[in-house]
Amino acid sequence: MQLENIKGIGPTTIKYLNELGIYEVQDLITYYPFRYEIIENSDIHKLNDGDKIVIGGIVENLPNIIHFNRKLNKMSFHLNTGTFITNVTIFNRAFLKSKLNIGSVVTVIGKYDQKHNSITASDIKFGLIENTLIEPIYHSSFKISSSKISKIIKLVFNKIKPLDYIPDLLVKKYHFIDKEKAVQIAHNPQNKNELEKALYRLKYEELFMYMMKINYLKKSKKKKDGLSRNVSYENVLEIINQLPFQLTKDQIKSVKNIYDDLISENRMNRLLQGDVGSGKTIVSFLALYINYLGGYQGALMAPTEILASQHFINFQKLFPDLNIVLLTGKLKAKEKKEAKKLIKSGKANVIIGTHALISEDVTYNNLGLVITDEQHRFGVAQRGNLKNKGITPDILYMSATPIPRTYALTLYGDMDISSIRTMPSGRKPVKTYVKTNKEIKDVLYMMLDQIKAHHQIYVIAPLIEESDKIDLEDVYKLEEKMKRAFGKVCNVGIMHGKMNAKEKEEVMNNFKENKIQILISTTVVEVGVDVANATMIVIFDSYRFGLSALHQLRGRVGRNDLDSYCILISDRETKRLEVLTKTNDGFKVSEEDFKLRGGGDIFGIRQSGDMNFKLADIKNDYDLLLKTKEDSENFIKSEEYNDKKYDYIKKIVIQSANLD
Ligand code: ADP
Ligand code: MG
After folding, report:
1. Residue-range domains of the chain with CATH
2. Which ligand 1 atom is the nearest neighbour of the CA of 276?
């Protein structure tokens, strides 16, 4: 139904609505409030000057009106609340005068001026508010106000019957209220309880349909537009058997998943997920090797220079016969040119690098596989960019941020997931302690123990809010401190983002070769860096980090069978940090992180979500999302799914899936 057909709104209003993205009645109905204003009668004795006031009473005298000009007028009258009489002023409501008779019962909403015993009203409602008044607040514009939008939406109630996308069996299971009623309540709630129920139902529906779409995408994406390779698994096993260590069960499973993808005509779109230190790198190397055997170039993109060169060195060690090229932004112009030439000519079998890999002027010869390490660090656009460099290269993402599976599914849509849950054998959990700055002496003694045992230590300088800007002063101060404490017994080095690639590499190499025993660093070591002899990490001002980030940092140690330690120094939020002392399981940490950052009640301002949901929020409604995932999967498997009456659901799912 078109907006033109609604009685009571003219072309100008329609234009303003269009500007808000509202073109049809359907759009109006689903233009949900972004928050609700709860209005309760005020207790006058508890009010302070300037407070918001909501109070009912009787109009004592005929309102007095002053017209300043055609657009501006001021009306005032006395209100008798039963216990006192106050003066009420309101602007631009002269049109209410005819309804405001002496003795009319009204509720005044406004600001209380204690000194002058007066109220500057923003609204006057007729009658008393019994309990609570809930006012929907819409995203509005200068041209059209939230309350106007509210009024217009109420005009179209009953004009169309919104379709219900929740199958009957689920409506029954959860005792959901009727869809049409839920929509009306969302726009015109009478009490908190019914609003909560209505929103719950609408969010459920939204998430349910989203999960239906994901399920559909997963099923239908098996289009045969990928590269198939002729590689025997024997060859892969041969290489696996030559590795310096035995792969874990999950590593082997992941390699097999990837192998199957690579030899099939289906295009790979896979997330390799595994806790820090679980050994994703070797899996990605094997993927690159399989791809090479299949006759294609492969690229591995890492988020930092350090990590890129670490991968480069390690890959070379394992596969000395391959032609490997390093391409990072910090290379000299000449080196870059040379690297690009090798890539273009096809001489380069494997290209390892940073963002430089996707910079516009790199031309690949026959790019068959693209891997991004620490995937969460790259934006969606960047991911897309790299994809488009090849013909239709297979894609592997790696992430150590153990996103709960469902969350990953929604974030990455139709992606397949391989998980490495088993750690390489012999690993011990990292012992984690929270210490305050007052206890720094204890910390220094613990550090000394490690130094005496010929082990190495990372010290992480406080994180500065803006990730790029680092406070060098902090690093230098720490260096001074550490040198004072340990200068006589060991070497202290520093590393930070302002150093150039070469300097960083030098420091990192010195640390790897145990020429430096204490490495003070900003979070540039956060991801991926691998030095097995490091057994302790001390993180200053750790409250500034999210739990998952701390878990990542902690993953720099505990990379062998030695006892390892993580010391979180913080004078604040120590309770939150305690989570890390209790578990070494990245999945648990991220669930906690999730819970702590999520939450928030439905009456607060809705966060602008990660996904474009109208009502639901992926973080706050995470539990609901889990429910809809399970329910949608069961629904698809159920007999009921084949019932013709649900064809409209399938149709919408397919439609929206094809839009993305
Ligand atoms: P992440 O998954 O965090 O990227 P890495 O791939 O860096 O972890 O692996 C961590 C360390 O564990 C590396 O030193 C790697 O060589 C080693 N490693 C990986 N797999 C195994 C294994 N199956 N057995 C023993 N060590 C392994
Ligand atoms: Mg890694």
Report:
1. 41-131 (2.40.50.140), 161-220+625-660 (no CATH), 233-420 (3.40.50.300), 431-583 (3.40.50.300)
2. 3
Tens-digit pLDDT profile for residues 382-435: 444 554 455 678 889 888 765 555 555 555 556 788 889 888 887 889 999 999
> Considering every ligand atom, which ligand is closest to the CA of 372?
2
Ligand 1, CB cutoff 6 Å, lining residues = 245-248, 251, 274, 276-282, 400, 424, 528, 530, 532, 559
Q: Whose CA is nearest to atom 20 of ligand 1?
A: 279
Torsion angle of the four alpha carbons 141, 144, 148, 149, in this order, in degrees rounded to the nearest 10:
-60
The identity of residue 89, as a single letter, is: T
* pTM (predicted TM-score): 0.60
Element (H, E) at 615: none
Q: Ion ligand 2 — residues with CB under 5 Å?
A: 528
* Core vs surface per residue 486-506: b (16+ CB within 10 A) or e: beeebbbbbbbbebebeebbe
Is-contact 281 311, C-beta < 8 A? yes
Q: Which atom of ligand 1 is nearest to the CA of 248?
A: 23
Q: The dihedral of CA 626, 631, 636, 642: what is its sign?
A: negative
Q: What secondary structure does DSSP assign to 302-316, as a single string?
A: -SSHHHHHHHHHHHH
**What is the tens place of the pLDDT at every residue in 505-564?**
888 889 989 999 999 988 766 555 778 899 999 999 898 887 878 888 898 898 888 899
